[in-house]
Fold:
Amino acid sequence: MKKLYVGNLPFSTTEESLKATFAVHGTVLSAVIVQDRDTGRSRGFGFVEMENDDEAEAAISNLNGQDLDGRTLTVNEARPRADRGGGGGRRERRDRRW
Structure:
């Protein structure tokens, strides 16, 4: 199994149409479009999991740089998510008067 990053997706792309686009090149295990957490609107990128490396490489070589509804796709092997640190808390601001 290999996970692919798909960037520059048209905002009208659905997970079903993304899956169909990649299914031409092999078995698609999953297709997910990343959505904005507040609006639910597509963020213009997603991920596709292909069943094996050969099919994933075929999809990359055939779809990277290709036009989909007027937008040029970016397709490559997904990289592991970088650790963005923990926390998430607010830093308290202190006014300093000298």
Summary: Residues 2-74 form a domain with the Alpha-Beta Plaits fold (CATH 3.30.70.330). DSSP finds two helices and six strands in the chain. Residues 84 and 90 are 15 Å apart (CA to CA). The mean pLDDT is 90.
